[in-house]
């Protein structure tokens, strides 16, 4: 079977997914849509597919699944439309910046028994997946403390910041999902501190560029997250898990693994310059997993619920910074209680 | 000039200092005192020095300086006695578990214009010192985020825990000092979370064995600390500093640097098994620095104030865990305000 | 422009090239030929191309270039046929096991002004290429000593050994080419020692499984090569270049970059298990370079001459082991003198 | 028991041994002798020992053992004198530059049943010793290939070169001993190539500054050695052993283990700047081992025979370069045959 794809959005992340879909022998990219005609036609030219409007893709008989890479404020509406149209949906995170809107959207997905997968690409990185495997095999015993360092190479433009929902919903959201994935149990409380150290304009826009977060589960497991919007040395992406019998870690990746030695010392090249190259394999594996879910009609993972919970953790972090205290996830939203209403799709 | 030493306490850490003093060409170990006669005479035999009572050392003409390695609850009293007797004092951390008692003690030290150095040995580790040097030279720009991982190889007996003042005052206190040392400015707020994951008996004794801490300075700089009482892989001691122009880190140390490769992979030996070997060089450099302060009659560093502030940070962490909120250091104690009353000795 | 490919040989290395050709947006795999019908049809099915005989590919109008992955003893004949048919030729190493036969073949290639590229894939590995770039930029000054470690994960069957031409022509040949590539000047003398340590049957077949080689250039530069047919820890592929101003090295690659720590130490996974995964990127870049040569009609590199010289170095190594002495490359063959007769194609 | 030492020679290596002896709790440095009065008195002042003539040390009742650090051409004569005087002798390598002279000297040692230990300090490096232990425990199976990289930070003055006996007898001699130590069996043949790449003056003095060596044992095991007189990145000292079940390696050591990251990459400091710091621990362990041999009156290791064989390997390397061929150790000297005449002392 070949899964026939429509791509919604031909921007930076849309290009990444177009490549992943096109390289997959079980997938075929049929059409691409974008508000900017030229962006769509350029991508269509590169991969030999059609340019269509979103409405045409919605109505198309020759499309089984869509990848949603449009602006965040359109995600929930599009998920609902395509779920109702019987298409499988892969949506970039976040579903929406508002928890209630996400919940409403997931109810539609649930009612339609639609396949929805949310783009937490890092779960599909082979190195992080190997870390998860080591944990799953019991090699480090019971997980006790997860440490995540996640730093961008450089701060985005303030215009981006303003539409982003803030550092916790835009950037840390990936780390919240990774923490859940590695802890293996739900997070109960969030404590965060944040400040503006990189770019004053970010502060003036009401956001932060440097953040530290502590998470705790009901059984007392910890996770800590360290975020910065600027690391001169590249895209810093490390995870480390300490358990009762040992620890496992995934080091940073580099485009080339050489070392130059001279009188100044031994120098290895900087890290990858951003997610498009750092997570190249992860994006390919992610689409591959989505195709498997579509083919097998089994619930996708990470699911809409995973997207919802990560967002709720971000909301709790925002509240924690504002109020200077530890925030229970249950305070922020009834998400955990609501969880049972969803069938895990 | 040779500095003539008396050693108070011949236990585990006393032995470490006896070795450091004896190996230093500018020092001479004259006498050792210990409540357990045999501990004192064994150490005296090994290093060819006398066994004396604390009173005899206090009264001795042939002793310039003492190293206090007795139980914590005797530290403040001994510091005061030896300061009054005109001896230079090196005291193992902490000065006392009670901030007010520490302040009273430091007033005596100040009044006597005595030399007092507190045993934050990690500042003298050559690797951590090299990290500090890199920062001082401006190589990483402005410091923004300090990350400290500090894990013991195994939990101590519950009897030790009961007398320890709790994980923050006993273990994290070193990390609080290191955070201040690397941040280069005072910490304004402390947020901590802690749990019992290693040994239930530690929880029954009212303490924790796993802790995460976030610190913030007035200018918004962050530090995070991750502590566990048990790491199967050895004594885990790492620091990492992220700044505006780059980052610097000090990796873990191993007794031997080999790697064995076979079908299971590439294996390096575990870390040092505890502080006595991991910080062997640090203890030697620490005593050497103390001797320099004694000889030059300049204020010692880390000073009594450094000991006081680290303790106040520990108190703030305790309060933070209890109340589930960020605690300002100013809440806990008037330490920062009081600081000016001390002359930095 | 799209370069239309025929693939000759659908075995292990044929599959690797089929994938590289198919993934390249400037290439199209038109047909595959193999003496075993099923091998050809399986591969054709996987990549959606035709099955044809070699004769059909030779006569085809819709094929611009061929990749020769057939058994070694057919290479020279096929190169000549396809060169005469006006097709661009990419041929797996070696062109032939006999230097004189290679020279005769290259004369045909030269007479036809055909494009011929020889499959020294390692030159296209991004890490080794980065090493070459560092040298080219002068970062380590003048190259003085090249060190190559190249070990296979496990010894091949004795049947393979018997047809292989021996360890120097089959395995070390890659390292001879790499040494030339990194030294940046021709090798003047070869000294080798070899023994049977892995598998007695290899010795009984008249070959060796463990070899050490020293090379020297006219200006006195050194290269050393260490080969073994069996490394339990994986496919060991390292290069290191020492120069007047510094050194540069490329470490081994692993499928995943994680580390597991426990009481036994810190363990990283084994290396790649062989060239198909270790050099995946190299094969893709290699075909990409070939396409560029075909499109630009410029001389290919590595060329037939590069293939010839590497074979001559292997012959010199064989002679060195046999005679227990350093062998000048000029002794073995008139290759260097003949070099001028070839136009570098 | 305390072993009472006389030190002959207060130069660079003499100072290293003075420190090692003085720091050892089972040793006492009684006297130092040097042709330059001031060198002797400076060292004596530093360690609180006497200045004496060699004759006085020879006649002294209060000296049990001597450390010979005088110029090479005096070693054999001094060993004989002190052996006859009943003192235990530790002598820096080499015993003499002439194999026959060494053999004559060892006969005297043997006749006197004297304790003689030769200064192959690297055997006592904790990292290299750990490599040896891994082999001894069978963790890598049967040893097959030893790889040694040994490069000095900078070329010595030509005056030193002229008296040195040449690169193989002066520098590679340590690597010959290490190869034997790790191979665990005697070397049968030596093949070497050498050139002048660092300093023409070294070539004009009849020596080389860059050398590669291949060794082979009777059972076909290999060792390769790579030497250069100049490595801008520090004192490069690495060993690696490949065996039937795995491999073990010892990486380079650095004074500090930090890493600085910025836009140019990740930089670790250069290596140790020379043997005095790189092998600090090794020198201490070496003297400690010597003291144990003296106390237990057991044969010392590395012995005079070890010194003799390493020299014979160097002679074979010289011959190999001159004649452009593999040289059997048996050609160079009757050392192996003679071996039985020595009682291993």
From TrEMBL, chains A, B, C, D:
Keyword terms of this UniProt record: Oxidoreductase
This enzyme's EC code(s): 1.1.1.18
GO molecular function terms listed in the Swiss-Prot or TrEMBL record: inositol 2-dehydrogenase (NAD+) activity; nucleotide binding
Domain GFO/IDH/MocA-like oxidoreductase: 128-248
Gfo/Idh/MocA-like oxidoreductase N-terminal domain mapped to chain residues: 3-120
Oxidoreductase as UniProt keyword: yes
Isomerase recorded as keyword: no
InterPro entries: Gfo/Idh/MocA-like_OxRdtase_N, GFO_IDH_MocA-like_dom, Myo_inos_IolG, NAD(P)-bd_dom_sf
Protein family per UniProt: Belongs to the Gfo/Idh/MocA family.
NCBIfam families for this protein: myo_inos_iolG
Protein name listed in UniProt: Inositol 2-dehydrogenase
Originating species: Devosia litorisediminis
Gene: iolG
């Amino acid at each position: 079977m070949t899964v026939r794809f429509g791509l919604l959005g031909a921007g930076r992340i849309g290009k990444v997914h177009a490549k992943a879909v096109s390289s997959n022998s079980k997938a075929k990219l049929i059409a691409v849509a974008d508000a900017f005609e030229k962006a769509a036609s350029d991508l269509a030219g590169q991969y030999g597919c059609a340019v269509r409007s979103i409405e045409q893709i919605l109505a198309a008989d020759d499309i089984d699944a869509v990848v949603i890479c449009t602006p965040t404020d359109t995600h929930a509406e599009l998920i609902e439309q395509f779920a109702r149209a019987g298409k499988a949906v892969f949506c970039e995170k976040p579903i929406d910046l508002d928890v209630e809107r996400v919940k409403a959207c997931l109810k539609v997905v649930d009612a339609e028994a639609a396949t929805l997968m949310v783009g937490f690409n890092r779960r599909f990185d082979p190195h992080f997946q190997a870390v998860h495997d080591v944990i799953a095999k019991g090699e480090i015993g019971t997980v006790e403390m997860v440490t995540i360092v996640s730093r961008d190479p450089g701060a985005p433009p303030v215009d981006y910041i303003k539409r982003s929902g803030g550092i916790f919903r835009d950037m840390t959201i990936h780390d919240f999902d990774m923490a859940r994935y590695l802890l293996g149990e739900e997070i109960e409380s969030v404590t965060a501190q944040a400040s503006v150290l990189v770019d004053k304009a970010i502060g003036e826009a009401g956001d932060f560029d440097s953040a530290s977060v502590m998470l705790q589960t009901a059984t007392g497991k910890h996770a800590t997250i360290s975020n910065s919007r600027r690391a001169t040395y590249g895209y810093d992406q490390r995870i480390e898990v300490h358990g009762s019998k040992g620890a496992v870690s995934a080091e940073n990746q580099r485009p080339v693994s050489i070392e130059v030695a001279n009188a100044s010392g031994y120098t290895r090249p900087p890290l990858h310059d951003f997610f498009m190259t750092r997570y190249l394999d992860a994006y390919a594996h992610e689409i591959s997993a989505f195709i498997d879910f579509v083919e097998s009609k089994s619930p996708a993972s990470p699911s809409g619920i995973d997207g919802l919970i990560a967002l709720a953790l971000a909301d709790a972090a925002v509240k924690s910074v504002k109020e200077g205290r530890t925030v229970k996830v249950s305070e922020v939203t009834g998400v955990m209680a609501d969880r049972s209403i969803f069938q895990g799709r």
